[in-house]
Structure formats: structure tokens, C-alpha cells
Design goal:
A hairpin with a 2-residue loop joins strand 3 and strand 4. The longest helix is centred in the first third of the chain and has 24 residues. The chain has five helices and four strands; from the N terminus they run H-H-H-E-E-H-H-E-E. By secondary structure, it is α+β, with helices and mostly antiparallel strands.
Length: 137
């Protein structure tokens, strides 16, 4: 199994240059895990990952790792964090996928699943595109 991205790709997404070798190793390991997770999700949905455009796989892998990297300093279960230095203060709120990091850092959003072709468009609980082709009786 190959990784779908590099630490440089994640750096481009975050507008950061990772010069520390420890950070590079952490991100490279995270990319390998995220790539394996994407492969597992694809297989679970019945999609062969080799049939998906490598550019799309790269986008999703970079997105997963960049999100993980940005939430590394978030305490488990936190919904927001505030930091104050002098008279300047910053507050950040986290959504439910950021809170996933306490259990597993990998979570494919609905948009990412659609991008990879793992979910079909649906309206409420009615599936708009059937899983199986119609057969003639």
C-alpha cells in the first residue's frame, strides 16, 4: 500500500514548511495511516481504491492529515479553546469531527466520501441511485 501524499503536500495545504525532522516523521506516519484508512473505507464500500483518481486520493489524505495536525493540541473532548496574550485574545471552537481525535483521528466527512465515490446521493432515507442495476423480469 502506497501513501497518497507527502509531508510537503500537507505543508502546502497548511502554508507551512516542516523543517523539523520529528514533525516530518509524524506527518509521514499519519499520511500512511490515513492512506490505509482511506483504502479500508473504500473496500468496505465495495470500491477498489486503485480505480479512484490519484489526485482525489491525495486531496482526501492531505485533508485528513491537515485536520489532524491542526487539532493536535486540542484537549480530548474540548469544544473550544481560548488563548490570551496581553490585550489580544483568540478563541477557537471545534466541531464534532475535531472531537473524534480522542478516539480516532481519521473520519471521512460526507463530502470526502462523495468525492471518493463511496456514497450515493440520497434524499432523507430514499436512495436516489440504486446500488444494483435494474434487471428485466
Amino acid at each position: 500500500m502506497a501513501s497518497y501524499a507527502t509531508y510537503q503536500d500537507v505543508g502546502k495545504r497548511l502554508n507551512t514548511v516542516f523543517t523539523d525532522e520529528t514533525d516530518q516523521d509524524m506527518i509521514t506516519s499519519a499520511i500512511e495511516e490515513a492512506s490505509a484508512y482511506i483504502d479500508a473505507e473504500c473496500r468496505q464500500a465495495g470500491v477498489d481504491p486503485s480505480t479512484i483518481d490519484s489526485g482525489l486520493l491525495k486531496i482526501v489524505a492531505v485533508d485528513l492529515v491537515a485536520s489532524w495536525w491542526q487539532t493536535l493540541d486540542v484537549p480530548a473532548g474540548a469544544t473550544s479553546v481560548s488563548k490570551t496574550v496581553g490585550d489580544v485574545s483568540m478563541s477557537v471552537s471545534y466541531n464534532s469531527t475535531a472531537q473524534q481525535s480522542s478516539r480516532s483521528p481519521w473520519f471521512l466527512s460526507r463530502q470526502q466520501r462523495r468525492l471518493l465515490g463511496l456514497s450515493k446521493p440520497s434524499f432523507f432515507t430514499i436512495q436516489m441511485v440504486p446500488d444494483l442495476p435494474f434487471s428485466r423480469l
